[in-house]
């Protein structure tokens, strides 16, 4: 594999070098202009400033860059055109040519640094749709500057955006390298459907998901973390579309919002080579303190005594501690910190080299990057190789052509997880509870340590998969995923009627291949070779191929100075084909044979052979127009028609209208006296977006084989009901917004108030009467879900002079998620509350999606007297025979009588029995408030300090780690919190007694529900730009050194490792549970960025 990848990279690099070194320069002979560009303050020449010729329509005709002395010479086509002079850190100048032939140009320093390039996605020129200035947008759109994220050490764009945009809530799935992020724009908008935003790269949608028909394990969370495929160093701008009127323009896949990414492109001038390097040291945050071997050895006999009334059997070798039994004494006489044993120092290195330039007709941008990260948990790593080539070619004054191609190779190593469901990082949760008196390495019979890991087939903690040696698992078991993605994109733009009618045509081919391989050898589990869990080999392949086309006709008539009008007709199509294969077997002949195709036992329960082949198509047509009058009143109307093959013929097509408006109040005459108001606008929008089911072929009858035979033949039967009447899930969004700019744009504020209602929610597996011959419907429209809230974004420059600039940014959002309607036929509850360790989950009207329910924990019974049941008046309940009644659990089904030292649960109905009637709402995992803020300080355009904080407030998570490390239920190790446990009658504590395999002290209750509110010091970055004199002496255009510290400190009352936990398992009943995943790491990054 390494040889093939090397060859591929070599070939790809040759292609890049060939294309990017090829420039076409048209000859033109009208006039040659000459001049010099200098700094207005220092009078020093400016190297690398761009001088371009623009016509009356602001189209670039030609361009050059200044040399080391700031000099330039440019051949222009017409003296009626103008010169535009710009460079990073200076205010752009526009000069009329006229009769002038020589120019002495002085550029004024602009302290802000990189100019913000506003590409508004669905309304930006690079996307081929309406080209509307940001100040004239009628919808809720936010653009993030490239300079805001360029110094972050982030593997993906979503990680870099975390906390920076109001209304966009981003949480990490895990702290392991290659793990994706969970993105929610204005809350969770669907229950069974995807709430992930649509990703658009350079104007074309990016395929990000696979159908639910094929369970590919953690594909959605990690393997298909689409933003890992776009290198942050290639990004020019990022735009988020939030309200329904904006997202409606992108069709059915955009109901949950749109994240638009525009990559860097070529520029007029001589070739410029850029190089960026970052090196990162990663450190695990403080872990939960666990019992050592001595403390653990005192806990276990106590728990056993409390359950059985007898001492722990002396026959158990794990607790003999007899020096005469050398083997057991050495292997079970230790103080092992298992969490520390699976933890390592994380290191990340990233290199990116780019080539950018162009002539009058051809421009190019190319880059090659390499990213390698070793995680803080042993056995985890992520490697990425990416390449990009963006070409722009002006065929003539009326025809322009673009060709983009990107390639990504990724290689992800994760810890082995038994099964294929999304869940805990199992190896870390095992490490937390692994018995600490056990040795990592095995001692032999004479007491000498061996190089072999100590992995007994079974001990008092059990056997695989319940427990194992986590260090051996991290070392020997493999779980690898390799992705290859190539995306060519071509665009043709033709001016059918110059300055009036433009047509564009885009076609994109996206091939994404992901191969996952895992292997569980015998030495990772210690189980006998004859068992089916030994030498288990799994292989999964997913190939997703999509072809996307987009044809636009844009009409822009000239209606006079006070009137502006643009309209568009857009025709779009998307075809997706998914092919998957899965094979799993076990008992391969050797631990060296790791592929499921090798000889193995085929007659065992571990054998799995699955394939899937699916295809879907969606088409769309958009009509949109915007009219503006006198720079004050703007109106936008649109109508989107979508068709999707996942629906039956009756509802395959649907219409989704949108309307929005903007009133620039500051342009009214009554505002003229308020010269400190630069802009004050009011926006309002109303729109609809549709969503299709995630699975294919729901409107077909699918037939299956009967398992039994008749006359040697299997019969067939229809396995599902044909769903002809399945309707589109529809989001109806309303938005009211305010844009305010004050004091020469020193204060800029955006305020949005919204309400989104999702109706006809697509639910899966609806229970129906068996009289129909079926037990359920695969999909049905039943339910309504609301998301409503507000957002505020504030950007200020409180201080600025010739040397210093101080900026401060702040954003906050409030989203309320409420279920308004749910079908009585839908299975709206999950979880067995009669068992320890489980919570009840309901889909309950007027409560948020993601809510959890359970008992209220009230402490610990200190003595027998306190266990008596009390009625509503506080009197002891008396039985039919006059006897006093003691508190019970789930009478008469279980009928456990609570004992001194047991957990107290609130008896809601005061009947002396803790059962389902005492279950209450405990919380939900949706934060009430979230956002980020931070100041930045810059001095003399060279020194800059940026601080950034993120926060999530008033949301609840279940501390699953606390649950497994304080239950004192089995032979698992526990945290040091149990040192305060109840031991004798009269003890007053909130930590119940230790009871081996007995009691109900860790039921799903408020005991483990914690307020996870936090304020995180997310990053601090110090950067230094070298001065022009020094750069000139070493012949560089730019040189920047920076140091960044990430995840520096977290302020929270949460008792777990990290409070940032998104929704865990996917599906309707997924809730936020801290299952001992790898937390976000503390990172220290040193970086260098240069250009020459």
TrEMBL record:
Cell compartment(s), UniProt: Cell outer membrane
Bilayer topology annotation: Multi-pass membrane protein
Keyword Signal carried by entry: yes
SUPFAM superfamilies xref list: Carboxypeptidase regulatory domain-like, Porins
Residue ranges of domain TonB-dependent receptor-like beta-barrel in the record: 463-1047
InterPro entries, per database record: Beta-barrel_TonB, Beta-barrel_TonB_sf, CarboxyPept-like_regulatory, Plug_dom, Plug_dom_sf, TonB-dep_OMP_SusC/RagA, TonB-dep_OMP_SusC/RagA_CS, TonB-dep_rcpt-like
A cellular component term, taken from the record's GO annotations: cell outer membrane
Coiled-coil region list: none
Tree of life domain: Bacteria
Pfam families noted in UniProt: CarbopepD_reg_2 (PF13715), Plug (PF07715), TonB_dep_Rec_b-barrel (PF00593)
Signal peptide: 1-26
Keywords, in A-Z order: Cell outer membrane, Membrane, Signal, TonB box, Transmembrane, Transmembrane beta strand, Transport
Residue ranges occupied by any TonB-dependent receptor plug domain in the UniProt entry: 135-258
Family note: Belongs to the TonB-dependent receptor family.
NCBIfam families (UniProt xref): OMP_RagA_SusC, SusC_RagA_signa
Protein name (record): SusC/RagA family TonB-linked outer membrane protein
Lineage: Bacteria, Pseudomonadati, Bacteroidota, Flavobacteriia, Flavobacteriales
